[in-house]
Amino acid sequence: MLHLLWRSLIVSLVITILTVTSPALAATSKVLPIPQPEFKGKIGITYKDSKPDFPQPITAPAKAPNVLLVILDDVGFGQASTFGGPVETPHLTRLAETGLRYNQFHTTALCSPTRAALLTGRNHHSVNTGVVEELATGYPGYTTILPKSAATVAEVLRQNGYNTAAFGKWHNTPDYETSAAGPFDRWPTGLGFEYFYGFLGGDTNQWSPALVENTKRVEKPANNPDYHLTPDLVDHAIAWIRNQQSIAPDKPFFTYLATGATHAPHHAPKAWIDKYKGKFDQGWDKLREEIFARQKQLGVIPANAQLTPRPQELPAWDSLSVEQKKLSAHMAEVFAGFLAHTDYEIGRLIDAVAQLGELDNTLVIYVVGDNGASAEGGLTGTVNELKFFNGVPENFPQLLASYDDLGSPKTFNHFPAAWAWAVNTPFQWTKQIASHFGGTRNPLVISWGEGIKDRGGIRSQFHHVIDIAPTILEVTGITAPKEVNGVKQQQIEGTSLVYSFDNPDAPSTRETQYFEMLGNRAIYDRGWVAAARHGRLPWERTVKGDFDTDAWELYNIAEDFSEANNLAQENPDKLEKLQKLFFKEARNHQVLPLDDRVIDRFDVKIRPSVTAGRTNFTYYPGVFGIPEGSAPNLKNRSFSITANVEIPETGAEGILLTQGGRFAGWSFFLEDGKPTYIYNYANAVRYIIQSPEKLPAGKSTLRFDFDYDGGSVGAGGTGKLFINQQQVAEGRIEKTIAYRLALDETFDVGRDTGTPVVDTYQVPFAFTGNLQQVSLELK
């Protein structure tokens, strides 16, 4: 009995000591904001007989490190040289050599869902983000409205004494809430980041991005002819960290950098593209074999791993013509240059932190992709991604004609699906396909100075993106709060990776994990995976399959790293058990109902909007940057635009109203004083309706009427131009955009803030007369 008492006392003493000395175990407030302490001074009659007790600023736990969280976009497991890929990533490798490489880390298979899970530590459906913002529906797991009950790790760190900032791609604000009218509580600055510089949507033109600073739309620097988004993001991140450390060097920072790379459009400086000339001439089949061999040499896959075969839906490289091979290889060169350029820029950020003497005191978590490489470019690739979303076909001569423009501002390009499959080596499939690791297995590198002893080590514990937030909390010594800003918090569903830092052989603490995206689904449980790929391929717009007929596969990944051997027929009992477990997890995490629709869900009319129910709109000069989800929806209907202008004696030119840009859109403007309406049908054809005469000096009312043919979506119509109620021009617009005019371009009044709808003018092409107002009527 005495022995047991002494043992109990010793254990209690050890726990007490650890709690006092270890930031990871020290408890912080479970209620945020941290309640202000009671006044402990003395109140007398005057200050002379009183004693002050000033409230002290909240400080982070002792020795809490800085945190740098980096995530790339659409990068395959076998893309970076750090994990055996063909693209040189020396700066990622440098981090891996001072830290750890994780080779069984997983994402959700799509952009917004991965980011929501990353920042909250909860599964994507649990935080209402089962799909990207642009496809949101009115089911609990799919509204894309991050709940107040799932505070981001940024909010938790901010309220525990950190400075916080985010740079780059956000993609976690509902599409219809991204205008200047807000609301702003689901913008980065409303979700824990004190500063934000980047873009809100799913992708953006790297040469002409749709930029936001905090809650204000801003334009790219006008004095840099070589402007590219990635260096701009890194410049802003470096400047913010330097300012923060100069002013408050004892206060830790949390910096979140999410690049647009390597999501389409694949935009990179020509010098970086040229570095990879000829590097992909061997084709995707041979490249996959080369990557696989390097992965084994590096030890990032097991020696007994098998290379999975090419799906029958993808063509063999040898089946392509000489010209097709030439174009496809160049598309891969552009893609490679994009990632190599990104690695260089992130290296600049790492160097800047090192120059401050803070790198060893910074937990660097580098997630190499928010999903696998993307097959959304289709079998041939594309020079305009908007054609895919709107079902506009491209033929090979059109693609080949853009050969020299790939990667430049003249294209919104994406490479062929087979390249995505190749750089997802050794796994099956690609982005969107959450049933297989080609869609969900991404490299992870973690570096933390002396906090990681096994430098250059490899970790093979099974983990998921929801595990990053609890890892950050454990390292910083911050307790996951039970209540934030008056709202009770959902349980964090992730589990920390810290246990693996010093123990490469520790069993994984994540025993079960579901996966689901667009109907593709899988369940992992204690070394086994059951998977069901749904019928639609990533580049297809319509669904071919039925949920009831999807074939389930079974893999023992404890012995079969790459999911090469389907054991469904050999072990039907195990498969049935896992299928039941999937549906149990699905019900627990708001996954149901399963929904495989894509094009239907792109329709902005199915979501709330500030334009809902309105048919008349009035806009004034200076209004710009209205995203498509908050702008009047002119697609598939008749409408009228009226502009009240005053023209000086010297004449005028410029934009009256525009939406979209070079890759799809329309513009109503004065060209050489002549009222002009141009409709850009996916950069394939432009319909021009122009007055033969210039506007006279003085006040005029201009109107453009569009009479839609109807009958089907994307139909044509007749456009008419009027000056002071007199018709001056008429023309046919044979085809219109059916579903989505832009992914990043906006609705602008009096100027064009993106790319030009037609290259006869240069942005911003601001109106040089007096534009009093523009009104718009939907019919």
UniProtKB/TrEMBL annotation:
Alphabetized UniProt keyword annotations: Calcium, Hydrolase, Metal-binding, Signal
Signal peptide location: 1-26
Classification via Pfam families: Sulfatase
Domain Sulfatase N-terminal, chain residue ranges per copy: 65-478
PROSITE patterns (UniProt xref): SULFATASE_1
Family of the protein in this entry: Belongs to the sulfatase family.
Protein name: Arylsulfatase
Organism for this UniProt entry: Nostoc paludosum FACHB-159
